[in-house]
Amino acid sequence: MIFLWMMAIPLFGALAMLVPADRFLRTGFAVRAFGTGVSAATLLVAVSAMTAFDFGDTSRTQLQANWAWAPAIGLRFHLGADGISLPLVVLTALLTFLCFLYTLRHPPEGGMIRLLTALLLVLEVGLIGTFTALDLVLFFVFFETVLIPMYVVIMLWGGAGRRAAATKFILYTLLGSGLLLAGMLLVAVNAGTLDMVQLAARHGTGVSRGVQIAAFALMGVGFAVKAPMWPLHTWLPDAHTEAPTVGSVLLAGVLLKMGTYGLVRVALPLAPDGAQVWAPWLGLLAVIGIVYGALACLAQRDLKRMIAYSSVGHMGFVLLGIASLTPVGVNAALFGNIAHGLITGLLFFLAGAVKDRWGSTDMDALGGGMLGTAPRLASVLTFASVASLGLPGLAGFWGEMLAMVGAYRPHTDLPRTAFVVFMAVAGIGALLTAGYFLRMLAKITHGPAPEPAGPAPAAVSAQEYAAWVPLIALTLLVGLWPKTLLDVTAAPVRALFGGG
User: Fold this and answer.
1) Residue 22: per-residue pLDDT
2) pTM value?
3) CA-wise closest residue to 263 among 214, 224, 225
4) Dihedral through CA 423, CA 426, CA 428, CA 433, nearest 10?
5) 3-class SS at 453?
6) Which of 149 and 361 is assigned the larger pLDDT?
């Protein structure tokens, strides 16, 4: 029931935005404060879910709600979480709350704050539902629920190129969703059930090898679009660049995780034979994405666009870990998901702060010397950058390092030589990642400041600190004590491979 409450609270909050303004929440600040309160209540329920969760048995699906939905065709409204999904549920609730907190003083341009509040709350419902659904059709319904709110957020509150970016986003994701639905139904029809818990426990039993190969290909492409995997990534830079700050934070911090989570939760356990066939190709595309993303970042002049392309590279490490088909690699992928959500969410908050103060995210136009003109903002940007480039002791290090370990010792049925080459190429990508972040810091934080063309940049606000500090603290926590997260995911990952 607890996850039902987590979705009911933001859903009722969104419906409250339909009440006429002359009767309810008459000012924009009151609406933003209401959204912050609703998201805070959802976060409190997420924290209560953590306290009720049995961390001694993280492989077991817990806190379930299971009702008949459409008995005639075997559909059930089945929710629950294990150690794979619970961290993503909490991350969703946290980032949504921080986005609302940020908007208290920094609302996006374009007005219509009631509509924005409703859309962000519906987005939270879809994300939590995606990470807790245990019926294939229910999973797909929530997976699709996320698309329209994000499309509208980009379309109405985005930058100058928002229409093209939003259109590309919706077309890519709808195409991927069609393939995803076909792949899931192919498995369900052959297995005779839509229950994801039963299907995972069978490890492909009852579904022929040919069906699994076809189903994994369909589901893999559908999830790869959302991840995003090269060459299906081209919607991402435009969407990130044009989206408002809160849209970019949620898009990078949580929406991209829907693709990699789906691969681990749905594609791997439902079609393990197909996974073994396609894993080398998945690994190849992952390392191409790592190097491509880094090289693209080196060519960027816009800060937001550079951060967007960095996501292609970072999610490449997540996909490489999944492609190894080993517990080490999949744990690396799940760790990388959370680390990327924390760090890249922080980076997009900081990019928004830069845009608010200087009116641009063009690195050449910004010039250097930010450490002198805005030392606190520049210091947090430096921290987030070194965390993203994988500095040991911070969250970004462990996912990348463990993904390369998984590639060095892939599943015994996979070509080890090829994966060792993938590991070496990924290592080159990690070096390039350090290069583009250090280049960015050298361009905008170091050196002499340009002659001021106007008033000094505003000091960091209390709302900005409130949005940044939790992400900084968690980046340090999981970086210095990675077992806090690895202990949660280890048991369900072993169960994923039949290890109990």
Assistant:
1) 63
2) 0.92
3) 224
4) -150
5) coil
6) 149
